[in-house]
Amino acid sequence: MATENKIIEQIYNKINDMIGGSNQLFSMQFPAQPLNYRMYQYDTSDNFSVLTKPYTAAENEFRLSDQLFDVSPIITGPNGEKLSIVYETLINNFIPKLDYLVPFIRDRAGFANFLLEV
After folding, report:
1. How far apart are alpha carbons 42 and 49 in whole angstroms?
2. How far is it between the farthest Cα atoms of the chain?
3. Neighbour tally for 12: CB within 10 Å
4. Would you state the pLDDT for residue 48?
5. Are 74 and 59 in contact (CB under 8 A)?
6. Which helix (H) or strand (E) holds 75?
7. In sequence order, what DSSP letters do the residues of 23-67 get, joined into one string?
8. Residues near 54 by Cβ (< 8 Å), separated by ≥ 6?
9. Which pLDDT tens digits describe the chain residue by residue (118 residues)?
10. What distance in Å separates the CA atoms of residue 53 and residue 6, rounded to the nearest whole number?
């Protein structure tokens, strides 16, 4: 077991040195996630194609990039959270919805107009 850990650390260090992330953390997934290249390939030789990338290839690329991983040098796989869902949750929490204030603002404006008339 100790030998396996050292081999994994050597692989991680070699790749990290090649990439040169400097002050960024490089996360390596081990065991690696096998990908089927056919899910991402498409013909680019056709000059008369309407779409530059087929919908299925774009959707598969999105699903691959939508996965979130824990912050660690060596990880076992995605943590089950999706970037798109976390992003939408953050945006909705930072941008308040003011729908519940609409009746209050209307009443306040009507009350202000009533007081100005009197």
Report:
1. 11
2. 88
3. 16
4. 65
5. no
6. strand 74-75
7. TSPP-EESS-----GGGT------TT-S-SS-HHHHHHHHHHHTB
8. 42
9. 566 678 889 998 898 889 876 788 888 888 888 889 899 888 777 776 666 788 888 899 999 899 988 888 889 889 889 999 999 988 888 877 777 778 888 888 888 888 888 6
10. 41
Q: How many CA within 13 A on the CB side of residue 103?
A: 1
Instruction: Return the SS3 of 74.
Output: strand
User: 93 in helix, strand or coil?
Assistant: helix
- The ranges assigned to domains in the chain are 2-117
Helix (H, G, I), strand (E, B), or coil: what is residue 6?
Answer: helix
pTM score of the predicted model: 0.58
Q: Which helix (H) or strand (E) holds 103?
A: helix 102-117
Per the CB < 8 A criterion, the answer to whether 27 and 71 are in contact is yes
- Cα 31 to Cα 99: distance, rounded to the nearest angstrom: 48
List Cβ neighbours of 86 (8 Å cut-off, separation of 6 or more). 68
